[in-house]
Amino acid sequence: MSFSEFDLIERFFSGHANRDDVVIGVGDDAAVLNVPTGQQLVVTTDTLIEGVHFPIETSAEHIGYKSLAVSLSDLAAMGAEPAWATLSLAIPAYDEAWLTGFSHGFLELAKTHNVALVGGDTVSGPLSITVQLHGLVPDGQAIRRDGASKGDLVYVTGTLGDAGLALAGLQNRLNLDPVILKRLRQRLDCPTPRIEAGLALRGLASACIDVSDGLLSDLGHITNKSGVGADIILEQLPLSVDTEQYIANSGDWNIALVAGDDYELCFTAPANNKIESLLKSLGCTCIGKITQQAKIRCFHTDGSLYESGKTGFDHFAV
């Protein structure tokens, strides 16, 4: 049976522009969208490559989910409300089962966050996925990377290290119990975009970033842009039971500091007791403070310095 690119788009990706601000969605040369008065447009683009951003054996549904989740995480870090997405998909060949799973994973997460798929492209080639996501933020309220000041506290959402630990197990760099690996892999394949936290941090956070390449690397973007440093207390890092046990047995804090793929938010905020209860309700943990010296230092609670020796993931590191 012959099947064209346009048949593929119509069957798996059309009819999902379920927002009143979409004038023209999938099916024309370009989308036409209404940007509300008093709002600024926030745009992010992410490309996922098989074997780099997800293991080769990852299910199609999880690939679809993650391809949107990582871009949602970028919008969360900016304090933006998700609105519209475009999807450019390269696949080796037409595969109905794979496309069904992929589109389900992508579109179900889009529905959860009221995202309309409004366009994109499909081509034949090695598997890769590029998502451009558009969000909205009230004028002047986007959270940037360059606002951290000396004395601000450093926070993260959720837990750190689970995705990196899962990847190490899948790559046979660590021997993990299959039950634990299955539990951890859910965090690698299906990260939770912290949209609710990002929206709540408008006007509270002085700087914010999502943790995709590792805490030290991504916090480093905040400190570099802001011209400050940071002191982190290792025992204050939020850890799952599995990651905490691994670190207790190995002493390897790098799994939480540099492994990446957590897609949590790392942000700074002035010390303020009034917002502590809100931050706790959002699952945020204070892990340190912003300092004047232009470096990030990691300490144990006894005051001893921990030297990581690494920073985080870099596609072009040699």
Topology of helices and strands:
Layout: H1 5-12, E1 22-24, E2 32-33, E3 39-49, H2 60-78, E4 81-91, H3 96-112, E5 116-124, E6 128-138, E7 153-157, H4 162-170, H5 178-189, H6 195-200, E8 207-211, H7 215-226, E9 229-233, H8 241-250, H9 254-257, E10 264-269, H10 273-281, E11 284-291, E12 296-299, E13 305-306
Parallel strand pairs: 4-5, 9-12
Antiparallel strand pairs: 1-2, 3-6, 4-6, 7-10, 7-11, 8-10, 9-11, 12-13
Helix pairs in contact: 2-3, 4-5
Comma- or semicolon-separated keywords:
318 residues; alpha+beta; 60s Ribosomal Protein L30, Chain: A; Phosphoribosyl-aminoimidazole Synthetase, Chain A, domain 2; 7-stranded mixed beta sheet; globular
Tell me what the CATH architecture of the largest domain is: Alpha-Beta Complex
The strand count comes to 13
State the share of residues found in helices, binned by percent.
Answer: 25-40%
How many helix segments? 10
Order of helices and strands: HEEEHEHEEEHHHEHEHHEHEEE
Q: What characterizes the major β-sheet?
A: 7 strands, mixed
The CATH topology assignment of the largest domain is: Phosphoribosyl-aminoimidazole Synthetase, Chain A, domain 2
Number of domains: 2
**CATH level-1 class of the largest domain:** Alpha Beta
- Report the β-strand fraction as a percent range: 25-35%
> What is the radius of gyration computed over CA atoms, rounded to a whole number of angstroms?
20 Å
> What general outline do the C-alpha atoms trace?
globular
Distance from first to last alpha carbon: 46 Å
**CATH homologous superfamily annotation of the largest domain:** PurM-like C-terminal domain
Structural class: alpha+beta
Write out the strand line-up for the largest beta sheet, numbering strands in chain order: 8-10-7-11-9-12-13
The low-confidence parts are 313-318
Mean pLDDT: 90
